[in-house]
Specification:
The complex is a heterodimer of chains A (363) and B (252).
Chain A: H1 7-32, H2 37-62, H3 70-88, H4 95-121, H5 128-146, E1 148-152, E2 155-159, E3 173-177, E4 182-183, H6 191-209, H7 212-222, H8 224-229, H9 234-257, E5 262-263, H10 270-283, H11 288-307, H12 310-314, H13 316-332, H14 334-352, H15 356-362
Antiparallel strand pairs in A: 1-2, 1-3, 4-5
Chain B: E1 4-13, E2 16-26, E3 31-35, H1 42-49, E4 57-62, E5 65-66, H2 72-78, E6 80-82, H3 95-101, H4 111-116, H5 119-136, H6 154-167, E7 172-176, H7 184-201, E8 204-208, H8 212-218, E9 221-226, E10 229-235, H9 236-240, H10 243-250
Helix pairs in contact in B: 3-5, 3-6, 7-8
The complex binds adenosine-5'-triphosphate (ATP) and magnesium ion (MG).
Residues 13, 16, 18, 36, 38-44, 85 of chain B line the site of adenosine-5'-triphosphate.
């Protein structure tokens, strides 16, 4: 009885290797090359969207439920972590203590919301999760865009009207300025930290998938009744997966809010949720590595097109949409995918100069 | 006391009385057959026993425990496992994983242990791999352990469903047409496997089957269902020579 290395585990190692190689390449470029400011500015964003997309893939690809609220969870993570950092930036001076705490807080708050939404919704069959998460995302954005929060010696003050309405005492400070959001968040999201967070997130995601919990989740996706008939508690596994997705979205949100010193809720709109879903779908549903690649490529292309020259820049969304359609055809059509994979293998064969025929004869 | 005690079970779908006033009693260790014409309500009885449908009338007791109206999950934990007439495998998982996922009641670790890869993860995974391979052995599926379930040929898919059901360590195993789509040679080997499973795993078996070679070959007792009602029950030889059964089901 001999078991080969688990193919799922192999997939994860390849992804770790690719991501590490990309990190090293970028570091070399930063230190010895002359990357454009645009590229440097995008590095943290690549990590943020990769985490958001890979974690959404847990719910969409591994659990098989549609969620349209990823931006809402990112928003919660962004606000809760930014509030923490603004409040503690004078008392906790070390970034290496404060920022990890802020990231954890962002993740935990988002996970709590994911859990609370999941309790009623995940018991139901059908696409209720999509509907509810869609509404949730919009509500969260709306609430954060209209709330004013401040504190003074008397404690916290809330208002939905205006900053003046907070009636802060002398020495009081406004934390959330309604649609103007939070300002003065320390810019702690360096590329290196964002990369470490991405790497840890990927380890969490792969380890989750390749554990008994992940198998249970996938079996529910593949056949709900059969999963019940072997005694699996469906709601428990669905809740766990959805909360983990929310947690990691919150983590991505924390990186987001510490990437710029001004945070506004309007960034976390429906378009962002859809954008991240597009990364998941085009990267391949259930394919974590694909989510990361799609997030990076599809974030880079529109920005790069913007920079090329003014003529092309006018058509950048047109070009972008054509690229989206081509990617969609390539990833969803089995024939075309087979054609591409086949040619890639031929190409590999040319480079490695392996004679497949000779190898076969040896057996 | 019988292992399974079903009394006056009934369910209606709209105006159709799919199962009516159905009673049966299965002793521990029995190899029991449930037969009858197409549409007689056999699969519906399985769905009632396993909680997929809730009965409108009647009671189900397993080993003295009342399972009437309980959920599918609870009923499996109480000791009933099944296979499905229209195969329901976890198609994107490997053969080995299909069995491993069903081991969760006896081998488990928390999600956190899995994510953090604590020593218990490696220990339990190893034990699960070994147990799953043991369960695949009587079905000649060890060679296919790494194959995707959906890539298995039909006959092997049916066997894998049995292995997966056994992984939950049931007291009562329900097999819905295990030989469907198999040729006579495969059926003969399946008959041996079912006997082995009953004896080695100490599980009681209730099976639905149209293949009379299998039914008369291994079932010790039979119940015959016709239009949702019990037509006849008893020892296999007696039931199969009953004129009512011959008229309704077997034909001349
Ligand atoms: N969910 C349902 N809704 C409505 N009618 C149903 C449902 N399930 C089963 N029936 C009906 O109940 C009757 C019994 O079906 P069942 O599947 O139990 O038959 P069976 O004895 O297993 O037949 P076969 O030998 O063909 O598998 C059929 O008339 C079927 O159409
Ligand atoms: Mg049937």
């Amino acid at each position: 009885m001999k078991l080969k290395i688990n193919p799922a585990a192999r997939k994860s190692y390849i992804t770790y290797g690719l991501v590490l190689a990309a990190f090293v390449a970028v570091e070399l470029l930063l230190n010895f090359g002359s990357p454009s400011n645009m590229f440097k500015g995008l590095l943290v964003t690549f990590c943020i969207y990769s985490i958001a997309a890979a974690s959404l893939n847990l719910t969409v690809g591994i659990l098989g439920e549609l969620s349209l609220g990823q931006a809402g969870f990112m928003c919660i993570g962004a606000y809760s972590s930014a509030l923490f950092s603004v409040a503690t930036k004078d008392s906790i001076t070390s970034v290496w203590v404060r920022f990890p705490l802020a990231i954890l807080i962002g993740g935990i708050f988002a996970a709590i919301f994911g859990f609370l939404i999941g309790i009623p919704v995940l018991r139901l069959r059908g696409d209720y999760l999509a509907i509810v998460t869609l509404a949730f995302g919009e509500i969260i954005k709306g609430v954060f865009a209209s709330v004013y929060v401040g504190y003074d010696s008397a404690g916290l003050h809330f208002s939905l009207k205006s900053e003046g309405d907070l009636a802060l005492a002398e020495g009081g400070k406004t934390l959330i300025h309604g649609p103007q959001g939070i300002s003065g968040t320390p810019v702690d999201s360096t590329f290196e930290i964002a990369f470490i967070v991405l790497f840890i997130s990927l380890i969490i995601i792969y380890n989750f998938i390749n554990s008994s919990t992940g198998r249970a989740v996938m079996s529910i996706r593949d056949n709900r009744i059969a999963a019940e008939s072997i005694g699996l508690n469906i709601t428990k596994y669905k809740l766990m997966t959805f909360s983990l997705t929310a947690f990691l979205a919150g983590v991505a949100g924390a990186l987001f809010s510490h990437n710029l010193s001004i945070l506004q809720a309007s960034k976390f709109d429906y378009n962002l949720s859809i954008l991240i879903l597009v990364f998941v779908v085009l990267g391949g549903i259930g394919n974590i590595r694909g989510s990361v690649i799609a997030a990076i490529v599809l974030t880079y292309i529109p920005e790069a097109l913007r920079k090329v020259n003014s003529d092309l820049a006018n058509y950048r969304m047109l070009i972008y949409s054509v690229i989206l359609i081509v990617m969609m055809i390539c990833t969803s059509n089995a024939k075309i995918r087979g054609f591409i994979v086949g040619n890639l293998q031929k190409f590999k064969g040319l480079i490695i100069r392996k004679a497949p025929a000779a190898e076969k004869e040896a057996h | 006391m019988a292992l399974l005690e079903v009394k006056k079970l009934g369910i209606s779908f709209g105006g159709l009385r799919a199962v009516d006033d159905f009673s049966m009693s299965i002793e521990k260790g029995d190899l029991y057959g449930l037969i009858g014409p197409n549409g007689a309500g056999k699969t519906t009885v399985f769905n009632l026993l396993t909680g997929v449908y809730k009965p409108t009338d009647g009671t189900i007791f397993l080993d003295g425990q009342n399972l009437t109206g309980k959920s599918i999950t609870t009923i499996n934990k109480a000791g009933i496992a099944r296979t499905f007439q229209n195969i329901r495998l976890f198609s994107k998982l490997s053969v080995l994983e299909n069995v491993k996922v069903a081991l969760h009641q006896h081998y488990n670790y928390s999600a956190l242990t899995g994510v953090l890869r604590l020593p218990k993860y490696f220990k339990t995974e190893k034990a699960m791999n070994e147990r799953a391979m043991e369960l695949l052995e009587p079905f000649d599926l060890q060679e296919d352990a790494m194959t995707l379930a959906s890539n298995l040929p039909y006959g092997k898919q049916r066997k894998l469903e049995i292995a997966r059901a056994l992984a939950t360590e049931p007291k009562l195993l329900l097999l819905d047409e295990p030989a469907a789509g198999m040729n006579p040679k495969e059926t003969a080997s399946l008959m041996n496997t079912i006997l082995t499973v009953r004896d080695e795993f100490g599980v009681t078996v209730l099976l639905i089957e149209h293949d009379m070679q299998l039914v008369s070959g291994i079932c010790e007792k039979l119940s015959v269902l016709n239009f949702g009602q019990l037509l006849c029950e008893g020892l296999t030889g007696q039931v199969l020579s009953d004129p009512e059964v011959i008229k309704a089901y077997l034909g001349e």
